C-alpha cells in the first residue's frame, strides 16, 4: 500500500547517514505526501525512523516559520498594524511556560491528530477523552467532574486495548486527503482565538499553525503520535524562546 515504510521505516530518498544528507530526502518525502496524502495501515513506530525524521522536519518547520514571521515583520515595517497576541498580555511564569511547551502540544496532538490514523480504537479513545474533558469543563459538581473525567480516561484506555489490532477503516483511507487537510485547517482556525477572536481577514496570521499542522499530520500517520508531539514541543519551545528573547 502507498505510504508503507521501507528500509529502516523510511522512504528510499530519506535514508542518508548524516543529518545534512537526510534533510533533502525527508523534505522531498513530505512534499510528495502533500501532493498525494496516503494513509498507511500502521505507522512505523521505531525509534530509529522517528529520530531520522524529526530533525529535518523541525528544520523545515523553522524555515517556514522564519519565512512567515519575516513577512509579518516586513508588513509591520510598512505600517500595517497587527493584532496583539494573547500571550503579550500574560506573564510568562514557569508554570505557564511549561504548559505552553509541553502540556498544550500533548493535548493538541491527542485532540487534533490522535484520530487521524483512522483506526477505530484511536478514534473512540479521542472521543472518550473529549467527553471527559467536556465533563471537567461543564459539569457544575466537583464530584461529577472528577467522575466524568475519570470515566473518559478509562473508556479511552479500554478502546485502545480492545481495538488495538484493528487497522484503519477502508472508507477513512479512501477519503484521507479530506481528513488530513480539513484537520489542518481546523487546527489553524482554532488558533485565531489567540488574537482575541477571529475573522477571515486574520487567516494569514495562522498560516504558521496551518503549515505546522501539515507536518504534524504527516508525522502522525507515518511515525506515530509521539513523534508528532515531540516536534510540536520543539516548535512551541522555539516560539516561547523568541518571546522571552524579545521581552528581554
UniProtKB/TrEMBL annotation:
<feature type="transmembrane region" description="Helical">
    <location>
        <begin position="92"/>
        <end position="111"/>
    </location>
</feature>
<feature type="transmembrane region" description="Helical">
    <location>
        <begin position="201"/>
        <end position="219"/>
    </location>
</feature>
<keyword id="KW-0812">Transmembrane</keyword>
<keyword id="KW-0472">Membrane</keyword>
<feature type="transmembrane region" description="Helical">
    <location>
        <begin position="123"/>
        <end position="140"/>
    </location>
</feature>
<feature type="transmembrane region" description="Helical">
    <location>
        <begin position="176"/>
        <end position="195"/>
    </location>
</feature>
<protein>
    <recommendedName>
        <fullName>CAAX prenyl protease 2/Lysostaphin resistance protein A-like domain-containing protein</fullName>
    </recommendedName>
</protein>
<feature type="domain" description="CAAX prenyl protease 2/Lysostaphin resistance protein A-like">
    <location>
        <begin position="94"/>
        <end position="237"/>
    </location>
</feature>
<feature type="transmembrane region" description="Helical">
    <location>
        <begin position="146"/>
        <end position="164"/>
    </location>
</feature>
<feature type="transmembrane region" description="Helical">
    <location>
        <begin position="226"/>
        <end position="247"/>
    </location>
</feature>
<keyword id="KW-1133">Transmembrane helix</keyword>
<feature type="transmembrane region" description="Helical">
    <location>
        <begin position="57"/>
        <end position="80"/>
    </location>
</feature>
<dbReference type="InterPro" id="IPR003675">
    <property type="entry name" value="Rce1/LyrA-like_dom"/>
</dbReference>
<dbReference type="Pfam" id="PF02517">
    <property type="entry name" value="Rce1-like"/>
</dbReference>
Amino acid at each position: 500500500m502507498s505510504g508503507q515504510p521501507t528500509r529502516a521505516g523510511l522512504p528510499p530518498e530519506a535514508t542518508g547517514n548524516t543529518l545534512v544528507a537526510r534533510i533533502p530526502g525527508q523534505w522531498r518525502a513530505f512534499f510528495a505526501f502533500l501532493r498525494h496524502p496516503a494513509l498507511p495501515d500502521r505507522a512505523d513506530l521505531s525509534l530509529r525512523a522517528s529520530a531520522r525524521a524529526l530533525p529535518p522536519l523541525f528544520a523545515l518547520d523553522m524555515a517556514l516559520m522564519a519565512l512567515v514571521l519575516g513577512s509579518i515583520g516586513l508588513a509591520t515595517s510598512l505600517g500595517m498594524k497587527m493584532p496583539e497576541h494573547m500571550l503579550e498580555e500574560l506573564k510568562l511564569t514557569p508554570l505557564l511556560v511549561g504548559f505552553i511547551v509541553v502540556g498544550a502540544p500533548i493535548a493538541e496532538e491527542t485532540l487534533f491528530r490522535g484520530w487521524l490514523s483512522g483506526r477505530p480504537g484511536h478514534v473512540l479513545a479521542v472521543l472518550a477523552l473529549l467527553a471527559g474533558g467536556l465533563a471537567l469543563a461543564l459539569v457544575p459538581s466537583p464530584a461529577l467532574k472528577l467522575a466524568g473525567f475519570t470515566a473518559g480516561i478509562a473508556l479511552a484506555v479500554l478502546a485502545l486495548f480492545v481495538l488495538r489490532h484493528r487497522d484503519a477503516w477502508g472508507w477513512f483511507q479512501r477519503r484521507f486527503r479530506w481528513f488530513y487537510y480539513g484537520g489542518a485547517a481546523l487546527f489553524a482556525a482554532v488558533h485565531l482565538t489567540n488574537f482575541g477572536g477571529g475573522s477571515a481577514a486574520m487567516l494569514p496570521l495562522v498560516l504558521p499553525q496551518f503549515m505546522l499542522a501539515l507536518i504534524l499530520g504527516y508525522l502522525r500517520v507515518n511515525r506515530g503520535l509521539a513523534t508528532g508531539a515531540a516536534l510540536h514541543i520543539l516548535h512551541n519551545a522555539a516560539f516561547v524562546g523568541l518571546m522571552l528573547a524579545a521581552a528581554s
